[in-house]
Specification:
The protein contains 2 helices and no strands. It is an all-alpha fold and 53 residues long.
């Protein structure tokens, strides 16, 4: 019994999607990154302080 595998073409699901121009802009926009970093640190601080009460 022989199984043939079709390797000529792959589905689009096998590849990661390319980011849009808007996504690339927000990833590189330093003020936005600083804001997200600050918000993340505040969330972490709340968790840490809340765990020690």
């Amino acid at each position: 019994m022989s199984h043939k595998i079709n390797r000529r073409h792959r589905s689009d699901e096998a590849f990661a999607p390319m980011p849009t121009g808007s996504v690339l802009f927000w990833r590189k926009f330093i003020p936005w990154q600083a804001w997200r970093w600050l918000m993340l640190n505040i969330k972490i601080l709340k968790i840490v302080v809340g765990g020690h009460s």
